[in-house]
Amino acid sequence: KMAQTNPMPMPMGPWKITVYDQECFQGKRMEFTSSCPNIMECGFDNVRSIKVECGAWVGYEHSSFCGQQFILERGEYPRWDAWSGSNSYHIERMMSFRPVCSASHKESKIVIFEKENFIGRQWEMCDDYPSLQAMGWCNNEVGSMKIQSGAWVCYQFPGYRGYQYIMECDHHGGEYKHWREWGSHAQTFQVQSIRRIQQ
């Protein structure tokens, strides 16, 4: 068994996810109530369908929580395109996943900044925004952000499309001062829609 690599102990919570190695909830299945850093260590070559029964989760393209991120809220995902959505490029792999411990749809607050290191124009949000520009944000980029409460998913394009970045108040101290901290797949400051993660 792999040693626990999380620097902080995982609190016990209401999380439960069932993964299948075939589409439409067929084939080998396994239930999880905590993080899985590498599905191959559980005898799977990939995850091809998912049922999220409790809590919010984030899935990753690669093992060890690397690569593209996919938000997984309560519900059924019969195929990879149900969780990857309209990404810039389609990913049929999900090799690791973990609960989003700080998800709280009712109490979520984020402050976005025009430039990196929390400089420039700022905007505090407590609600979902399918288009930041339509709501008055100055351009299609966000330089940095502070997650004051809850957890958020930021999208590259309006309408909750494109790359997904999961931002949590209990990661990085809630402070994301540069796009490199948004995830190992991040390549740009471009964020054009933001929403709260459903618990």
TrEMBL record:
Presence of keyword Repeat: yes
SMART domains xref list: XTALbg (SM00247)
Domain Beta/gamma crystallin 'Greek key', first and last residues per copy: 15-54, 55-101, 108-149
GO molecular function, one term: structural constituent of eye lens
PROSITE patterns, alphabetized: CRYSTALLIN_BETA_GAMMA (PS50915)
Pfam families found in the cross-reference section: Crystall
Keywords for this protein: Eye lens protein, Repeat
Upper taxonomic lineage: Eukaryota, Metazoa, Chordata, Craniata, Vertebrata
GO biological process, one term: lens development in camera-type eye
Sequence similarity: Belongs to the beta/gamma-crystallin family.
Official protein name in the record: Crystallin beta A1
Reported function: Crystallins are the dominant structural components of the vertebrate eye lens.
InterPro entries: Beta/Gamma-Crystallin, Beta/gamma_crystallin, G_crystallin-like
